[in-house]
């Protein structure tokens, strides 16, 4: 087993790290304060060929692997988690459904623009009464002679304000439980679709988080994505890949917080010594470095398994669960090492902690991950 990065992966890492430090990091605090969406950064990423990175070149993608995708998410999140989640959701939730389940025509019409960065990807799954219980979807789609008529509400949807179209789930047959859920492609300019981005959030202020209100939205019959009634199984598959992105985000945020804590510990003097010379602080930093490295290895393993075309559900859940809970611990300790300054926005680590909390919730809560792992090990 080779744990080293390939030459291509190293090149991508170095390129994105330079971009993140030079273009993304300088405005991260301002965007956190104002909630300004990093649209210009996304446009620059499109020019770098990142918006379709793990998809085939025939769809205007980069032809890279899932580990490269994880590396990009990590490097972005290391300086700005809002940018990291925007990119991760675009790839793993917005574009992946078309790549996995789209027809040739749908890939030409929708996947290529996503890979070119002409639209951001968004996926409408969560509802006010269907979060962890995604099988409890209440949005409905009824087939008429005009097409599918969709009614319902979605919440906590990333990127929808900047998407020209999105995928969402709706119940097409109430008698079949989860086998009656279907995925649909919905252009965001359709009559009856309202997108509201009014959430007041704890963190990730510069990411776009929206509600979707669908009132008699009519889409053509050919806008079914995949097979009718297969939507539930499809989004479970999509979430497996999405959990790799969330795990990579967690590694990136934790790495950024750790680096700031390490730098501060080397510079800050107390009792005539640097903080880093005290064993209590050394042990904190050692634990942080250890946990980050373990999480990164697990995220890369899950990504590698996906690239091999083998089942990776358990590994993706383990990576997501361990990395996100690790991230919260590391960010908490980074604040502790900073002392009172860690509580102040000037030193940034409090932003990292606020941004980190969502990762234990989105793409399946920590509790859901434990349920998935338990099922996969035969409990």
From TrEMBL:
Source superkingdom: Bacteria
Signal peptide feature range: none
Species: Ammoniphilus resinae
Cofactor(s), names only, from the UniProt record: FAD
Domain (Acyl-CoA dehydrogenase/oxidase N-terminal) ranges: 6-118
Family: Belongs to the acyl-CoA dehydrogenase family.
Protein name: Alkylation response protein AidB-like acyl-CoA dehydrogenase
Keywords tagged on the record: FAD, Flavoprotein, Oxidoreductase
One Pfam family matching this protein: Acyl-CoA_dh_N
Domain Acyl-CoA dehydrogenase/oxidase C-terminal: residue ranges: 229-377
Record PANTHER family: ACYL-COA DEHYDROGENASE, ISOVALERYL-COA DEHYDROGENASE, MITOCHONDRIAL-RELATED
Domain Acyl-CoA oxidase/dehydrogenase middle, first and last residues per copy: 122-217
């Amino acid at each position: 087993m080779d744990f080293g990065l390939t030459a291509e992966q190293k090149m991508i890492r170095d390129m994105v790290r330079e971009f993140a430090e030079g273009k993304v990091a300088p405005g991260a605090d301002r965007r956190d304060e104002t909630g300004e969406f990093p649209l210009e950064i996304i446009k620059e990423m499109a020019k770098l060929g990142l918006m379709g990175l793990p998809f085939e070149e025939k769809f205007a993608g980069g032809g890279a692997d899932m580990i490269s995708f994880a590396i990009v998410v990590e490097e972005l999140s290391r300086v700005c988690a809002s940018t990291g989640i925007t990119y991760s959701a675009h790839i793993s939730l917005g574009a992946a459904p078309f790549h996995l389940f789209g027809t040739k025509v749908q890939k030409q019409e929708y996947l290529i623009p996503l890979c070119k960065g002409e639209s951001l990807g968004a996926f409408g799954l969560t509802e006010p009464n269907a979060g962890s219980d995604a099988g409890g979807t209440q949005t409905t789609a009824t087939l008429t002679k005009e097409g599918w008529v969709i009614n319902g509400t979605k919440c906590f949807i990333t990127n929808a304000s900047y998407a020209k179209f999105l995928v969402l789930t709706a119940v097409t047959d109430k008698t079949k439980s989860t086998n009656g859920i279907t995925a649909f492609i919905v252009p965001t300019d359709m009559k009856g679709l309202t997108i509201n981005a009014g959430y007041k959030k704890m963190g990730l202020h510069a990411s776009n988080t929206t509600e979707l209100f669908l009132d008699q939205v009519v889409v053509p019959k050919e806008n079914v994505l995949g097979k009718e009634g297969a939507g539930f199984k499809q989004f479970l598959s999509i979430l497996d890949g999405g959990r790799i992105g969330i795990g990579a985000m967690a590694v990136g945020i934790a790495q950024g917080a750790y680096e700031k804590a390490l730098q501060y510990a080397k510079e800050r003097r107390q009792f005539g010594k640097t903080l880093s010379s005290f064993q209590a602080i050394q042990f904190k930093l050692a634990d942080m470095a250890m946990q980050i490295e373990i999480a990164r290895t697990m995220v890369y393993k899950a990504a590698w398994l996906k690239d091999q075309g083998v089942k990776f559900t358990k590994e993706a859940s383990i990576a997501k669960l361990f990395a996100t809970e690790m991230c919260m611990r590391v960010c908490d300790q980074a604040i502790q090492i900073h002392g009172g300054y860690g509580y102040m926005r000037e030193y940034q680590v409090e932003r990292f902690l606020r941004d980190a909390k969502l990762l234990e919730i989105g793409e399946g809560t920590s509790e859901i991950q434990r349920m998935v792992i338990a099922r996969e090990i035969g409990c």
